[in-house]
Amino acid sequence: MPDDFVISRNPDGDSTLPYLLRIPLGDGVVLKSREMWPRTAKVYCHRVEEWPADAEIVERVGTRSCVRRGAAIDLVLDRGRENRSQFVMTTVRGQRQVIFWQSARTNKKARPRVTTPTARASGVAALEIVVDSRERYGYTFSDRQATTTRARLDAGDYGVVRHGSLLASVERKSLDDLVSSLTGGKLGFQLAELASLPRAAVVVEDRYSAVFKLTHVRPAVVADGLAECQVRWPGVPILFCETRKLAQEWTYRFLAAAAVAADEERPAARIAADLVAAPPLSPAPPSPAEVRAWALLQGYDVSDRGRVPARLVAAYLDARDG
After folding, report:
1. pLDDT one-digit tens code per residue, 187-229
2. Which of 47, 110, 125, 157 lies at a 20 to 30 A Cα distance from 256?
């Protein structure tokens, strides 16, 4: 058994993770798991202190290799199919440990095989993107026609600045960060700050479908929270862009389009300001009918046809404007 990969049923019937996995590494690593194998998606796992003595074993497979490499455990089973997988250890917000079990197949599905275009975004030859100084492991845009500088942004992680004003900004989030900031209330404050800008968005490095595969929080709570955020702040879209690479691509093109729009709007704003400051128009000259009606009320003798005498028009204007 020490060299076998073993799957048993979780004796805790109330757990949402119905299986136990024993990984033959050292004295044995025991995890709770949602599935028996990552066939269609990454599988969330959780650490267990010990293997139960009365475990109901479901499957036992010999191993060819089980090696820890950095923050991952590579497992190769002694069988023809479904034999290679990996357990990846990470943390949420630098505190809570999270373990995902993935295979080459599920990892490939999570990374769509697409080639992003190399054409400059919105025709901008050299877009300057400001990266928030608090952003860790941020986008570099190294393969895009853009340069980056680091500075403190009032809102978001990546922005376009003109004359000291933040014109557009994008907040980057992993799915775990999105969920924790949503359930903790932080996301609402971030969206309020972004909504104060001319243009802003939130980009998520995952698929929307991943929300409904969450195990450590009810998916309906997250889905409802996101919907409520979009209703309350409709001017700040939340975009799910599948992968980090595609999220960076979307951010680059969004900021370039925002920069072009800002440059186009600046002359229009000056024209609008000139229109507002224009002198008032002179009143239109009175019609003959207006002068005749006034003259009759004042007791003047005036014909109902023909040209109105200039002296009556002058008297009418003096009375109206005086």
Report:
1. 999 999 999 999 999 999 999 999 998 888 899 999 999 999 9
2. 110
Angstrom distance (rounded) from CA 255 to CA 278:
35
> Same structural domain for residues 173 and 129?
yes
Q: What is the pLDDT of residue 268?
A: 56
Best CA proximity match to 63, nearest among 19, 126, 18, 21: 21
What mean pLDDT do residues 48-74 have?
90
Q: Is residue 233 domain-resident?
A: yes
Instruction: Please give the distance of CA 92 from its chain centroid, rounded to a whole number.
Output: 18
Whether 57 and 132 map to the same domain: the answer is no
53 in a domain, yes or no?
yes
Closest CA to 137 of 25, 47, 236, 247: 247
Domain that holds residue 205: 121-274
Q: For residue 285, is it within any domain?
A: no
Q: Does 159 score more than 80 pLDDT?
A: yes
Q: What is the 3-state secondary structure (H, E, C) of 149-171?
A: EEECCCCCCEEEEECCEEEEEEE
Phi, psi of 90 (to 5 degrees): -145, 180
If one counts the domains in the chain, the total is: 2
Q: For residue 48, what are the contacts with CB-CB under 8 A and spacing of at least 6?
A: 20, 30, 31, 32
The amino acid occupying position 228 is E
